[in-house]
Design brief:
By secondary structure, the protein is of the alpha/beta class. The protein is 57% helix and 13% strand. The chain contains eight helices and five strands; from the N terminus they run βαβααβααβααβα. It has a five-stranded parallel β-sheet, sandwiched between helices. It is globular and about 45 Å long. Bound molecules: thymidine-5'-diphosphate. Thymidine-5'-diphosphate (TYD) binds at residues 12-13, 16, 39-41, 71, 96-97, 101-102, 105-106, 156-157.
């Protein structure tokens, strides 16, 4: 069985993790017996340690370039240690965020530039890109108010509403640029409806 790589993207609080669990169950039924679920920044001991630095709300002085490079470092470790070996072994990998998060959050919302951000990351991802990226499209306000209900906000979530609006719009722009790979779904719909739409997109790539 050939490896498949799917990433889940969207603003904070867009319901990615719920959909990842449902997709995992669906792929298991399809016969992918080993499905690797991972998240960014994180997914390895080293990447989780980097995550602690990035999201620590005491580090308000962190420069945007440092932030971008730390996300890329966490990603480099995740790709080498988990994603690349899994794909080579024919497994299915579903990642909660991948390089498009950097393109949107650092490239667009922070203003470092999309091309520049992909360039910084090219070293980290070693040419590995998802075959399918699901974009959970949600208004910034809805996402952030969901997050506030769940837990204490981290350094990124504490950003202004204007920042989160740039993120929400940034994802739409990125999806317009790569319509073949990035599929946008209205994330205000109910969980089961969203899952069924995701399954249709996944079936298309499994046929290929
Ligand atoms: P996380 O708690 O995983 O957010 P969520 O549950 O919403 O996915 O925190 C990740 C945060 O880091 C989130 O605010 C998005 C941000 N981020 C970037 O800014 N750049 C990146 O490359 C990645 C992977 C995440």
């Amino acid at each position: 069985m050939q490896g498949i790589f799917i990433s889940m993207e969207g603003p904070d609080g867009s319901g990615k993790s719920t959909q990842i669990e449902l997709l995992k169950a669906y792929l298991e039924k399809k016969g992918y017996d080993e499905i690797i679920i991972t998240r960014e920044p994180g997914g390895t001991v080293i990447s989780e340690a980097i995550r602690e630095i990035i999201l620590n709300k005491d580090y308000s002085e962190m420069s945007y370039m440092t932030e971008a490079l730390l996300y890329a470092s966490a990603r480099a470790q995740l790709v080498s240690q988990v994603i690349k070996p899994a794909l080579e072994a024919g497994k299915a990998v579903i990642s909660d965020r991948f390089v498009d998060s950097s393109a949107v959050y650092q490239g667009m919302a922070r203003g470092l530039g999309v091309e520049e951000t992909y360039n910084i990351n090219s070293y980290a991802i070693q040419g590995i890109m998802p075959q399918l990226t699901i974009h959970m499209d949600l208004p910034a306000k809805v996402g952030i108010s969901r997050k506030k209900e769940q837990a204490e906000l981290d350094r990124m979530e504490l950003e202004t509403l204007e920042f989160h609006e740039k993120v929400a719009e940034g994802y739409r722009e990125l999806a317009r640029r790569s319509p073949e790979r990035i599929k946008s779904i209205d994330a205000t719909q109910d969980i089961q409806t969203i899952h069924e739409i995701i399954v249709k997109y996944v079936e298309e790539i499994l046929k290929k």
